[in-house]
Structure formats: C-alpha cells, structure tokens
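Hey,
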Amino acid sequence: MAGSVDVRGGGSSRKPPLVLGIDTSCDDTGVGIALGGEILANVVESQTALHARFGGVMPELASREHLEVIDDVLDRALAQAGVGLGDLDAIAATRGPGLVGALLVGLGYGKALAWGLSVPFVPVHHLEGHLAAAAAEPPFVALLASGGHTVLFAVRDWDDIEELGRSRDDAAGEAFDKVARLLGLGYPGGAALARLAADGDDTAVALPFPMQGDKGLEFSFSGLKTAVALLVEREPGLRPADVAAAFERVVVASLVSVTLRALARTGLSRLVVAGGVAANARLRREFAAAGVDVSFPPAALATDNGAMIALAGAMRLASGRVSEHPLRADAEPYLPLVGA
C-alpha cells in the first residue's frame, strides 16, 4: 500500500482513514479508495455505449446498469488499491444531486457495506466531491461546470459556502453535447467537439455572446445553442470545425468573464474549476492567460468518479462534518450544496 497522507494537517502522526467512495449520480459507476488525501484506486465503468443511441442518458437504463456492474467495479477498486473490505475505515457515497434512481443504487449499496462492516457511513454531496478532486484549501471561488451543472460558489470554508450564480438554462457541458449532436458528432460530444474545434477558425463564424452587457453572475447557453442550430440549418455549407471553434470560443469566454467578475466581487484571489468541462484545454488556457491563481483536478478526476467521493468523505471525517444519523440519508436529486 502507498504511504499515508494526513489530510488534517498540523503534523499529526495519526493514520488517516482508508475510505471507499461510491458515485452513481448519473451514467458512470465509480468506486474509488483514498487513504486520507491520497488516491489508491479509481475505477469507473462508463455507460456511454449504452446511452449513445438515444443521444442522452436514459435514467431507467442507467439505474439498471449500475446494479449490474457495481459488484465488479468494487472488486476491481479493491484489487487496484491492494486492500480488502476488512481494511476499510469508512464508506462514502453520493446522496445528490443526480438521477434519483441512479443515486439510490450507490447510496443503498454504500449503506449496506458500511452497516455490514460496522464502519462509519458518510453521505457526500456530488459537487463537494468535484471540489475535493481539485485538492485546494479554502478560501476560493469555485466554478463547477459539467453536463448537469454550471454554478459559481464562494467557498470561504468547507462549512461556509455561498452560491453566487448559476446557469439560467442549459449547463455548459449540456450545451457542448447538444451542439456536438447538431454537428453529427454523437453522444457524449464535449470532447469530440473540442477536438474538432482545434482544426477550425474560431473567427470564421459569428455567434452571439450570451447575456451581452449583463453585469450579474449568471450564465445562459440555451440561446447560443439555438443560434448554432439556426446557423447550421441556414448555411449547411459551413465547415463544422469552424462552427465548433466559434462555439467553444464563446462558451469559454462567457465562463471566464463571469468567473473573473465573481473573483472581483468577492475579493477572493484563488479559483477552483471542476467538473467535466474543467478538462477543456481552451478553458484552461484562457484562465492561465488571465493570470488567475487557478486549480484544476487531474483529468482522470474531472468527470464523475468514486475517488473524488472518497476524498470528500475523508475530508468530512477529518473535520468532524458528519451527520448524526447518516444511514437515514436519502437520495436527493436536487440537493443544494449550500448547507449540505
């Protein structure tokens, strides 16, 4: 087993907890194992092939697939970490937000494991897992951008989080997927669209800037998606790479400009960017060019996974932020991060 890392700081020699994390919030079955702040295993079973023919996630199929594969994913994670069930100090699982049926699979599985092993169970907010994956200490502004969320938070401490603004409609990752489908790139399309955009001219196509002139901290991508749909229908001869490049340019510019505004208003100097869209190379370049002190999760932890839930669970245990009756925690598809 790899050497221990004490996430509590302070130079304590006490062994950090060995935590198993489970995430079944949407269409990936993730099981990870962390020793304090060190990841020992991260196994993700993707459902992309299952849902691709529908152009999006089918909730009932996702739930059934989680049930089918979770035993195997757990066994692979234990083997990867080189530990047994009896070595675990705690079990953490996502309780929300997400698809309720999918959440219930991982949450129920985690509770049963914890009860059977007589170890603590730690319910975790999915977005807290994404923040934990970036390995940053508060205070900071957080931009969480994925297929299901685009939201800004001021994280002054782990128990002092304020929501600053969010998308009024489509999440950024959702808009990427929808435009990728318009360009014939299939599902999921975010990474494919970014690859196509790399070969395009981002100035060859004129697209509207979302919420032009607005000085708030909200996002909107539905109108931009509609503009692309109308443009492709009106001018079918456009190079798809140019459309992809222009679309990516505008989405990234919107994310960056609103986030910089949030940093200025809060007076916080550090930024964490997490969620699937955090893997976008252009977004990373633009924040670097803006001179922001920014942290991103490793690519393997940007999308949904169980390791980030294990990390968040370990952090909660270390700080004492655990609920009084964790086995009573229910799946909450719209669970807010603030106060979770």
